[in-house]
Design goal:
The complex is a heterodimer of chains A (142) and B (132). Chain A has 142 residues and is α+β, with helices and mostly antiparallel strands. Chain A has one domain (18-136). Helices cover 17% and strands 21% of the residues of chain A. Chain A has 3 helices and 6 strands. Chain A starts with 17 loop residues before the first strand and ends in a 6-residue tail after the last strand. Chain B has 132 residues and is α+β, with helices and mostly antiparallel strands. Chain B is 35% helix and 25% strand. Chain B contains 3 helices and 5 strands; from the N terminus they run H-H-E-E-E-E-E-H. Chain B has helices at 12-22, 38-59, 119-131; strands at residues 67-70, 76-81, 85-91, 97-105, 108-114. Chain B is globular. Classes of the chains: A alpha+beta (142), B alpha+beta (132).
């Protein structure tokens, strides 16, 4: 998953490909569903101060396993959920390969464009779908 | 401490949860999330108490939020569930209110969302959800 990325190009992510998102235990609701806050604002990346995150970090399954994606964050109690790239695209979002050269993460990808009047609804639908593909369960209760 | 755990019995799990969220440190989500602001926590605390004060007598334990979630920008989200709709009331890091209302009906689900919500409108939304 991690390697030197000086000149590696960005690649096309197919609709059928899977995207992994790390899941803090605190985002699991009492009924086992996942909170849509999982897709809310990343404080470092979002400069427009809008709540839904217009640039959601994920890892592409072509270059990472769920275990590798989790290990990158060094939080063993967190989990991994997954989305197929088709879903955010069906919600008018853009899925693009964005290798993280600083951290040597070739799998890094972004779901972009979640702004505007349906942004919270999209977060809800992303979380609902991700909850159906919980690949690594968080190991401690919320 | 911005969120006191002392309050109505129906709110004990909510107030305990708010105290838990208060302890979250920088990068609690591994994607750079901020600690929750004292403003957001205090407003969440005040809002859930207001809902109990206004609507608790007639509705009993249904006035208690279903859950409370942190938001990566330092805000807090309070969720109420009702017979035909669920409401997520998001309190931003500066205390601003926004919401997502999911209504279930014969035609499927309907989504309604908004920002810069005045407090009275937020309280009206909670009442609508509780009463179905």
């Amino acid at each position: 998953m991690t390697d030197d990325l000086p000149d590696r190009p960005e690649e096309h992510i197919d609709d059928d490909d899977w995207l992994y998102r790390r899941l803090p235990p605190i985002f699991v609701k009492p009924d086992g569903s996942i909170s849509d806050k999982l897709f809310m604002r990343n404080s470092e990346a979002n400069r427009n101060k809008k709540e839904p995150d217009p640039d959601i970090s994920v890892d592409w399954d072509r270059y990472a396993t769920p275990e590798q994606s989790l290990a990158l964050a060094e939080r063993p109690t967190h989990g991994i959920c997954a989305l197929q790239a088709r879903l955010p695209r069906d919600l008018d979002l853009v899925v693009t390969h964005t290798p993280d050269r600083g951290r040597g993460n070739r799998a890094h990808a972004s779901i972009r464009g979640n702004e505007g009047p349906r942004a919270k609804q999209r977060c809800f639908l992303l979380a609902e779908a991700a909850g159906r593909h919980l690949l690594i369960r968080p190991s401690s209760p919320a | 401490m911005s969120a006191s755990q002392r309050g109505p019995a129906v709110l004990r799990p909510t107030l305990k949860r708010l105290a838990q969220l208060e302890a979250l440190e920088h990068d609690w989500d591994t994607y750079g999330a901020l600690p929750l602001t004292s403003t957001a926590l205090a407003r969440a605390d005040a809002l859930v108490r207001k809902v109990v004060e206004l609507y608790g007598d007639a509705r009993g334990e249904r006035v208690a939020p279903y859950t409370v979630m942190p938001i990566a920008d330092g805000g807090v989200s309070v969720e109420w569930r009702g017979p035909s709709a669920d409401l997520e009331l998001d309190i931003g890091p500066t205390g601003k209110l926004s919401y997502l209302l999911v209504t279930r009906g014969d035609g499927g689900r309907q989504f309604d969302e908004g920002t810069d919500l005045p407090e009275q409108e937020a309280l009206d939304l909670v009442r609508r959800v509780l009463d179905g």
